[in-house]
Structures are given as structure tokens and as C-alpha cells.
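Protein 1 of 2
SEQ + STRUCT:
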Amino acid sequence: MSKKPSPGSCRSSVELQIDRVIVTSLEKATVSVRCLRGPVRPGARFNRLNGSARALDLTLTQAVVYGHRVAELDTGLTALVTLRGEDVQRLMSAPATSGGQVIQGANPLP
């Protein structure tokens, strides 16, 4: 008898490196990022921040590459993304000498 996969196991793992937090309001941030593992799609949920034991809760609502909104952000691309959630206050621009924060999560189920 085969075992059914768990609900989260079919979701693809995604990862973004934060370069610059451009605009931050209480629960929304526009962030310059580089996609380290993709493709990342709108609706992706980020639940981990490198170097932090505390869980994260952010949702990607849009990605813009060279002024054009894209349906997915491929590995290696740099983009402006909009993230929503109470944890946007934890995001920081990268100092010139470091690689910046990395957030990890998963795409929504198809």
C-alpha cells in the first residue's frame, strides 16, 4: 500500500536573497531581490529567514522584472517584489559587505 504525500510535499521550495528594502509600510514591503531558487510565483509563502529561529509569515503578491510584471521569477533573476505580512518589519537592506538576508518558503499548490 503506497503512502499518500503530505499536503506540503508537492509544493516547490523557493528562496529569495534580499538586496534592498525600498518601501515598507506596516504589512507591505517592496523589496529588491535575487531569486536563488525558483521559479517563484505570486502566492508563494515564506516561512524562514536565515539566521533566525523564529518563524516568518510573508506572502509574495507580485514580481516585476525590468518594469514588467511577471507570472514567475526564475532562478538567477533580480526583481522588485511585493511582500505582505506582519513580518515585513523584520526585513533589512543588505550591507555592501554581506550577501543579505535570505527568505525561504514554498509556492502555492497549483
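Protein 2 of 2
SEQ + STRUCT:
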Amino acid sequence: MKNAQLWSYGDFRSKAHSRLPRPLFHYIDGGAGAEWSLANNVAAFSRYQLLPRAMVDVSAVEAGTTLLGRAVGMPLLLSPTGMTRLFHHHRELGVARAAALAGIPYCLSTMATTSIEAVAEVGPGVRMFQIYVLRDRGLTREFVQRARESGYDALCLTVDTPVAGVRERDRRYGMTMPPRLTARTLLDFVLRPHWLANWIRDGDFRLANITHRVDALGAGSMGLIDYVNSQFDRSVTWKDAEWMATEWGGHFVVKGVSTLEDCRSAVDAGATSLMVSNHGGRQLDGAPAPLDVVASVRSALGGAIELIVDGGVRRGGDIARALALGANGCSIGRPYLFALAAGGEAGVSRLLRLMREEFETTMALMGATRPQDLGGRAIPVGHGAEPSACWP
């Protein structure tokens, strides 16, 4: 299936499935525990219906808005995802270029396989760096300084990973970083010759922003859960977030809040934007779907704080639902990783074009000419479909 034949999230996912070795596909596709939150994130969008307005002049529909204090092409950003080189040799650079072409923000992960500086050199674009508070606080300070010196527009602190979630698929399929051929995984890799050939040509899977200070992977492959647990600091509190906001001194995003209490704490600590998120259902299985939380957070905190729905977004119409319930924008992770695996940088660009086209069509059918016109234009439809009926 060529890129031109890919029309939906399901298409990109299917193509990625045919190209990626099983451990890598399931690393993207899977979630924590029984994967209830993973499925519920998607199902949440079936619980709200959109309210159109007829007989409105929609001859000029404009999807552009403002996120992270910058003008963007549509209310969407690309979430931080670690180890992008695993899925395609275009790695983070291809994703950053596709985001810049679409005029939307790209967030580089601490766990990226491309450096902060290399992504900045891609050219003009809205960029954010995602950070954890690691055990090595000197490295944390270094990240803040490097992002500032490289001209990043925002800093994003992830707060929902004191430890890694229980990800059964990683264990079942033998996911390690970097990948390794064993008797258990050999057939999976051999059956994906396209991926294997690119691995042979470019097998550098090092975590580019960390390797000079942390050699956790230097001695060989290790389980991802073991690596995460070895590096993340369980003692982090909102005082650390407050310190980081002050240290950064610019647009500060907190990612991984899903309760009103935590949203208030993040704002008190200095957040200018909140990514309402349960880490794509990859951390606490049972955490609420971000879409189900955003309306109550908006009502409680008012219009000053920027809210981004992170989780379950699969289509352009989903963005409209999130904005109708009070969000300023949405972010995606799995969709662009599947698009990258399916077609590299061109695959990501195609996905973003399709999402923009559907978002603009949804706006026109709702009688909205600007994203701001969508506010308040969704109502619940009851309990909706069961999560299992909506996944994948």
C-alpha cells in the first residue's frame, strides 16, 4: 500500500504493522495493564456529539490559531515520543520537518535519538522540548540551558512517570533498547526486510541527549521498563516544577495531569499550558480519558490557561470535539509514529494534511470559520460505545 492509498489512522496503522518487527509495532500500539485507559481515550470521542449551525457563510474557513504563544497552522501539536529512530531511519528530523511544513509545533523528547541542537537546525518552526526531572539534576539543568540556547519556544515537563507503567506487550514481545536479535525475536526482524536493511545501514539508536552523561545502555540492551525506572526520580514534587518554571523563564507546559487538583497545582507552579493526558494509556491503567476531563478543568480554571487534549485523537473531527469542550488544541503521538513507520517523513506529512482537511471540513459543516467558533458546540450522548468497540 503506497502513501497515496493511506486515508485514515487505521490505514497508517496497518501499513506500519506490515513494516515493523513485532516488538516495535506493539511498543507503539500497546498500553499499560489491561489497556483500558488506552481504549477509553479513543472511546471518549464517541461520547459527544457536535452541534452544527446552518446558513452561515463558510466561504473562508481558517484553521490557524495560537498555541504555545505562537501562530500555528491548526490547533494540533506533535507530542514527545521517545526513540523515534526505532520506527524509521528518518527519525525525529523527519517528523520535525513534517511539522514545520504543516505549521504546527513539534515536541522533542528527552529520550529522543536526535539531539536538541540537530532538531533546531531543521529550520523555522515552533518547537518545544520535553523534559523529566532525572536523578542527575545537573543533566536536567543542562537540558534547560540547551533548549534555551537552541531557540525552543517552550519547555514541557512530564509529571506522570515516577515509574514506568506495567506494559505487558513489551514483555511479551521482547522489547529492548536498543533492539537485539535473539532466538526469540530473530524471525520477527527477518520477516521485515525493509526495516532490517535500514537498521544495517543506520543502526545508531543511542539516546542522543543523554549518552554523554548516562551510560545505562552502553553495556548492551536492557528492558525499557528497567531503564525508565533506573533514571526517573520518584521524589519529584511540585516544588521541582516551580523551580523548573523559574529556571526556564518562558512558556512552560505541564504534561500528564488528569485531575482538577493536579491542574491547579501545575498552574500554581507556573504552568502556562496544560497537556491533559494519561500518557496515551501507557502509565496508570484506569486514569480518566483526557477528553472527559477538559470541560470541567476549563470551567474551574477559566480561559487564561491553555489546555491541550493529549490522548485518543485519531481524526480531524476529534480536534473539533476537543475544542468544542473547552480545549485550545490537541496533540498526537501514535498516529504520527504509525505514519512515520508507514512512509517516513512523507507519511507524516500526508497524515497531517488529511487531519487538517478533515478539521476544516468539520468546521465548515458546523458553521465555524475559526477554531474559536467551536467553543460550547458539543453535548454528551450518554454513555456511548464501550471502549472495546472503538479500538483500534
